[in-house]
Design goal:
single chain, about 800 residues, alpha+beta, Beta-Lactamase, Alpha-Beta Plaits, five-stranded antiparallel β-sheet, 26 helices, 30 strands, about 20% strand, rod-shaped, disordered C terminus, binds ligand LFPHGCPZ
C-alpha cells in the first residue's frame, strides 16, 4: 500500500436526488390521481343532484302539458251539450297558447257504423271540405289515405287545431295498429296513453318522431268502474301531439335549467332496438348530441325516466362539455404540478447538496491525506502508519494472518545533515524513500515516522520471519549503496529492527516497542544490519529500566565513588597524575563499573549531575595531593552540550582550590563531530584559564588527524586496543609511531593507555610515547588506598 488512498466510489452520489425524484414523481401522481378521484366524486354528487333536479323539473313541465289535455277532457265530459268545433278550437288554442311544443290537438269521437255518414256531413258542414273517415295505408313514402272500410266503430280526427284543409281530417286512428293499441290501452285503463309515432307527412322543423298522447273521454255521468263500463261508456279521445324536443326545450328555457347539464331523452325502452334511430335521443340539449346511449353510458351520466302518460321515456343526463359540472381535474392538475415542482426543487437541492457534500468530502479527504502524508518524501507519515497498524491489528484475529513491522533508522545520516547541510539531508531522505519503495510490494506499507526513521508493515507472507529478513537484507543492501547528492557522494546504512505479529504482540504499542528494541540492538551491534526481536531483549530492557531507576536513586543518595589510576612519565617512570574513574557502589549488586551505567546515564540525561559530582570530587581530592600531581577527568559528549559546563568546571576548581593547570579534561573524538565552532570556543576558554585537554580513546573512532590540528589538545591518549596488539602486530607500532611523530609536530604529548606488560612499556618508550597508564603501574583504586609516599614512586621507577 505504497499508494495508499483510494478515492471513494462516485456511484451513489446522486442516488438521494434520484430516489427523491422517483418518490416525488410517484407521490405526485398518486396524489393527483387521488385528488382527481375526489374531484370525480364531488362532481358526480353535484351532477347527480343537478340532473335529478333537472329531471324533476322536466317531469313537472310535462305534467303541466298533460294536465292541459285533461282540462280538455273535463270540458268534453262536463258539457251538457256537444262541444262545437269552434268551442274546441278556442278552448284548445287558449289552453296551449304559451306552450310551445304542442303541435296539435284533436278530438276523436267514437262513431259507430250508423253515425258515420252523419259525422261526415257535419264536418263538411263545419267547413272541412271533402271530409270522410279514412284509413292510413302503406309505409314511409308510400303512405296514403283511403276511405275507411266498414267497421263497427271509428275514431277519426273530427276536430283539430290544424287548418281545415289538412288531409289528416277524418283519419281513423283505429286503422293504425299501434295507435289503436294506444287508444284501447287508454280506454280500458282510464289512463293517458302515449306513443312515439311518426306523423303523416313531413314534419316542420325536423325529422324527429313526435309523441302522441291519448286521453280517454267517457260520456257524461257514466260509470268507468270496470273495463266493461269503460268500453261501453267511451265517448272518444282527446289526442295531443307533442313536438318533444321543442316541448322539453321550452320547459328548460322557462325553468332556467342548468346549462351545466345536457339532457338526452330516448324513446321508451322496448326491449330491443330495431333501428339506429331508436338509439338516438328524441331530445338532446347537448350541443353535439350523443350518437347513442352507449356514448352516454361510457362517460359520467345520470339515468332516469320522463313519464308521459302510461309510458316512460328514458332520460340520460351528462355534464355539458366544458361546463362547470364536467370534471376539469384542475385541482388534480394543480397537485401534480405543485408535486412535480416540489420534487424538482427537492431533487435539485439534493443534487446540489450531494455535490457540495462530495466536494466537502473530497476536501476533507485531501486534508486527511495531507495530515497523513510526510511532505518531504510524499510517503505516509507516522499518523497514517499507526492508524494502519491499528487497522491490521484489529483484523488479525479474524484473518489469522501474520505481518511484520520493520523499523528503520539511517546510520550516519546525522553526519550528512551536519556536514552537508539540511538541504542535502532532505535530498538524501527522498532518495532513500525511493529506494525503499523499490524494494517493496504494492501491498506493503511504507511510512516515514520522522527524522531519519522509516517503518514498514509487511503482510501476506507464508513465512513472515523468512520474508521479513529477506526484505531487511534487501533494504540494507540497497541503502548501503552510495547516494549521489548535488556535488557529493555519500554512503550511509540503515539499522533495522523487526517485530512479527502476532508472535511478538497483537497491538500497536507492543509491536512498536519490540521493533524498537530490535532496532536498538541493531544499532548497538554495529549498524547496517537487522535484528528480529527476541524475548531476551525485553528482559534486557527491563533490567535497563530497573537500573535507570536505581541510577536516579544513586545520584540522590550519593552512591558513587571515584577510583584513581595513575599515569607515569615514560622517561623517568615518575607518577605525573591520576585519572578519575567513577564507580557505583550499588546496595545489592556491589561495585558497578562505569561501562555498565555511563551509557545509560547519558541516555537518561543523568550524566550531567553525575559528571558535575565527579568533577567536584576529583578536584577536591586532587587539591589534597602533592602539588606536582595532575588529575584527569572524563567528560561525556552529553556534558559538552550543556551551556553551563565552563561555569561548572570553574566552580569545581574554585571551590576545591585546585589550580587549573593540575586539571586535565579528557574528551573523546565523538565530541568533535558536532558543534565544532562552539566546542572549539569552549576548549579555547578552558585552555585560557590553564586547564589541559586530552583527546581520549584515540584510534577507536574516526581518528581523523584533522581534529589534532583543529583543536587545541595538549595530549593524545592512544586507546588500549592498539597497545594490546603492539607486540604482535607491526602495524600497531607503525600507527603509534606516526601518532607520536604527528603529536610532536603539533607540540602535543602522547599517553599510551592499557599498558599491562613490561614489554609493551619498553616498546612504547622506544616509540617515543610520553606517558603510560595501565595495570602495570596500578589499577584504579579509591583515594584512601593511594600512597603518595616515596615507596609508590620508587616501585614505578623500577617498572620504568
Ligand atoms: N564520562 C565519564 N566516563 C568515565 C568516567 N569514569 C570512567 N569513565 C569511562 O568509563 C570507561 C570504563 O572505565 P573503567 O571501567 O574505569 O576502565 C578504565 C580502566 O580501568 C581501564 N584500564 C586502565 N588500564 C588498563 C589496563 O592496563 N588494562 C585494561 N584492560 N584496562 C585498563 O581503562 C579505562 C580507562 O579508559 P580511558 O578513560 O580511556 O582512559 C572508560 O572509557 C572511561 O573513560 C567518568 O567519570 N565520566
Amino acid at each position: 500500500m505504497i499508494g495508499r488512498w483510494r478515492p471513494a466510489p462516485l456511484s451513489g452520489l446522486y442516488r438521494p436526488a434520484f430516489v427523491a425524484a422517483c418518490l416525488g414523481l410517484v407521490f405526485s401522481l398518486v396524489g393527483a390521481a387521488a385528488v382527481g378521484r375526489w374531484e370525480d366524486r364531488v362532481n358526480k354528487v353535484e351532477f347527480d343532484n343537478a340532473a335529478e333536479t333537472e329531471s324533476i323539473v322536466m317531469q313537472n313541465g310535462m305534467n303541466e302539458y298533460i294536465s292541459r289535455l285533461l282540462a280538455l277532457r273535463t270540458l268534453f265530459e262536463s258539457a251538457n251539450e256537444e262541444i262545437t268545433r269552434s268551442e274546441f278550437e278556442t278552448f284548445s288554442g287558449r289552453l296551449f297558447e304559451h306552450h310551445p311544443g304542442m303541435l296539435r290537438i284533436a278530438w276523436l269521437p267514437r262513431i259507430n257504423r250508423k253515425e258515420r255518414a252523419e259525422y261526415e256531413a257535419a264536418a263538411i258542414a263545419d267547413g272541412v271540405s271533402g271530409y270522410r273517415i279514412k284509413s292510413l295505408q302503406g309505409q314511409g313514402q308510400d303512405q296514403g289515405f283511403a276511405t275507411a272500410p266498414q267497421s263497427d266503430e271509428y275514431f277519426p280526427i273530427f276536430y283539430s287545431t290544424q287548418p281545415k284543409t289538412s288531409v289528416v281530417y277524418g283519419m281513423d286512428y283505429a286503422t293504425v295498429p299501434e295507435r289503436r293499441a294506444a287508444l284501447e290501452r287508454a280506454r280500458d285503463n282510464d289512463r293517458i296513453a302515449s306513443l312515439r309515432a311518426e306523423l303523416y307527412g313531413p314534419k316542420e322543423g325536423g325529422q324527429l318522431p313526435n309523441v302522441l298522447v291519448v286521453v280517454p273521454v267517457y260520456a257524461k255521468g257514466t260509470s268507468r268502474e270496470t273495463v266493461a263500463d269503460r268500453r261501453r261508456n267511451l265517448a272518444g279521445f282527446v289526442v295531443g301531439v307533442f313536438d318533444l324536443p321543442l316541448l322539453l326545450q321550452s320547459i328548460r328555457t322557462t325553468t332556467a335549467a342548468s346549462p351545466a347539464i345536457s339532457v338526452n331523452v330516448y324513446p321508451p325502452f322496448s326491449g330491443r332496438i330495431v333501428s339506429l334511430a331508436q338509439s338516438m335521443p328524441d331530445f338532446s340539449s347537448a350541443t353535439a348530441a350523443p350518437q347513442s346511449m352507449g356514448d352516454v353510458a361510457r362517460g359520467v351520466h345520470w339515468s332516469g325516466n320522463l313519464r308521459i302518460g302510461d309510458t316512460d321515456w328514458q332520460v340520460h343526463a351528462i355534464p355539458t362539455i366544458g361546463g362547470p359540472l364536467e370534471t376539469a381535474y384542475d385541482r388534480a392538475l394543480t397537485v401534480l404540478i405543485v408535486g412535480m415542482l416540489l420534487t424538482l426543487s427537492l431533487a435539485t437541492y439534493l443534487m446540489l447538496a450531494s455535490r457540495n457534500s462530495r466536494r466537502l468530502s473530497l476536501a476533507n479527504r485531501r486534508v486527511l491525506e495531507l495530515a497523513q502524508t510526510d511532505i518531504l518524501t510524499g510517503l505516509p507519515n507516522r499518523a497514517f502508519f499507526l492508524a494502519r497498524l491499528d487497522e491490521i491489528n484489529s483484523q488479525l484475529e479474524e484473518s489469522g494472518l501474520t505481518f511484520s513491522i520493520l523499523m528503520l533508522d539511517l546510520d550516519r545520516f546525522k553526519n550528512v545533515n551536519d556536514s552537508l547541510g539540511h538541504g542535502a539531508g532532505d535530498v538524501l531522505l527522498r532518495q532513500v524513500a525511493q529506494r525503499l519503495k523499490s524494494a517493496l510490494r504494492e501491498s506493503d506499507v511504507l511510512a516515514r515516522l520522522g527524522g531519519d526513521e522509516f517503518a514498514i508493515i509487511q503482510e501476506g507472507c507464508e513465512d513472515q520471519r523468512v520474508c521479513s529478513t529477506e526484505l531487511a537484507a534487501r533494504i540494507a543492501k540497497l541503502v548501503a549503496e552510495p547516494f549521489l547528492l548535488p556535488g557529493h557522494r555519500v554512503e550511509i546504512g540503515t539499522s533495522i529492527g523487526i517485530a512479527i505479529a502476532p508472535d511478538h504482540g497483537n497491538n500497536q504499542e507492543q509491536l512498536l516497542k519490540k521493533a524498537d528494541l530490535a532496532l536498538y540492538r541493531s544499532k548497538s551491534a554495529g549498524r547496517n544490519c537487522f535484528t528480529i526481536y527476541d524475548e531476551a531483549m525485553s528482559a534486557e530492557l527491563e533490567a535497563r529500566n530497573t537500573l535507570e531507576g536505581d541510577l536516579r536513586d544513586a545520584i540522590a543518595r550519593c552512591q558513587f565513588e571515584l577510583h584513581y589510576q595513575p599515569f607515569v612519565d615514560v622517561t623517568d617512570g615518575g607518577r605525573r597524575g591520576f585519572e578519575a574513574l567513577v564507580r557505583w557502589r550499588h546496595p545489592s549488586r556491589g561495585l558497578i563499573p562505569p561501562d555498565q551505567f555511563i551509557p545509560l546515564a547519558e541516555e537518561a540525561g543523568l550524566i550531567v549531575p553525575l559528571g558535575e559530582w565527579v568533577l567536584r570530587r576529583a578536584c577536591a581530592d586532587a587539591a589534597t595531593w602533592p602539588a606536582d600531581l595532575m588529575v584527569a577527568v572524563n567528560l561525556s559528549p552529553i556534558q559538552f552540550k550543556e551551556a553551563e559546563l565552563f561555569e561548572v568546571i570553574s566552580a569545581a576548581l574554585r571551590d576545591s582550590g585546585l589550580p587549573p593547570e593540575r586539571l586535565e579534561i579528557e574528551i573523546t573524538e565523538s565530541v568533535l563531530l558536532e558543534r565544532g565552532v562552539e566546542n572549539l570556543a569552549f576548549m579555547e576558554r578552558l585552555k585560557s584559564i590553564g586547564v589541559e585537554l586530552a583527546l581520549d580513546d584515540f584510534g577507536t573512532g574516526y581518528s581523523s588527524l584533522s581534529y589534532l590540528t583543529a583543536f587545541p589538545f595538549d595530549k593524545i591518549k592512544i586507546d588500549k586496543s592498539f597497545i594490546r596488539n603492539l607486540t604482535h602486530q607491526p602495524r600497531s607500532s607503525a600507527i603509534i609511531s606516526s601518532i607520536v611523530t604527528l603529536a610532536r609536530g603539533l607540540d602535543m604529548a602522547v599517553t599510551a593507555e592499557g599498558v599491562e606488560t613490561r614489554e609493551e612499556f619498553e616498546r612504547l618508550a622506544a616509540l617515543g610515547v610520553n606517558f603510560a597508564q595501565g595495570y602495570l603501574f596500578g589499577r584504579p583504586q579509591p583515594v584512601d588506598r593511594i600512597e603518595f609516599g616515596a615507596s609508590v614512586q620508587s616501585s614505578q621507577r623500577d617498572a620504568a
